[in-house]
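Dear colleagues,

I hope this message finds you well. In preparation for our joint manuscript, I am sending the LHPL2 protein (Balaeniceps rex) sequence together with its predicted structure, so that both groups work from identical material. I would be grateful if you could confirm receipt.
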Amino acid sequence: MCHVIVTCRSMLWTLLSIVVAFAELIAFMSADWLIGKAKPSSSEDVDNRTGGSQEPYHPTLGIYGRCTRISHMQLSRRDTLCGPYAENFSEIASGFWQATAIFLAVGIMILCAVAFVSIFTMCVQSIMKKSIFNVCGLLQGIAGLFLILGLILYPAGWGCQKVISYCGPYASAYKLGDCSLGWAFYTAIGGTILTFICAVFSAQAEIATSSDKVQEEIEEGKNLICLL
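The corresponding structure tokens are as follows:
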């Protein structure tokens, strides 16, 4: 018989697992890993309201995508154009970034799988006599290691020609030149830290769902057990 067990700690772990997976996925897909040096406005880029030239803009560069501005001379305005600069894996700007993409993709796939499984932990607490919380916590720890490897290798690719075109001639491995780090990089770091927190907290979720109080309510014949 299936017993639906909901505790404060197990629900918090589930929600945190889902948030971490989405945060890492969004960061990986974003082009805001590096913010390039300011590009001066051209003579055609005129603000219709003030009649003056618009402020310089900052192009952004991701692991496989980028965002830049394009001018519309007839409309006297600028639009931001975002999209992948690499049509296939081999066209990613640096070998280090290719390795970063692999490690991050593996880590994110594991996190997404754990997030999906975590939804069903209210009904299923064990698989083949193994606690599903402990298994998921172990997988989250492994995913965190993949994410760390990807983030360590990422700055090593800052010396590639693509980054130099965005960040100036002084850009090199682990040196940004005229660029700055974007929100996607910080989100990836924050998500990695939360991944290890999830891995540790999974043990608390397992303890909460197998506590004596839960067992007592199961013995009383209750199918829905909610302990906050």
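For the figure legend, we might mention the following. The two ends are 23 Å apart (CA to CA). The first strand starts at residue 4 and ends at 7.

With kind regards,
E.M.
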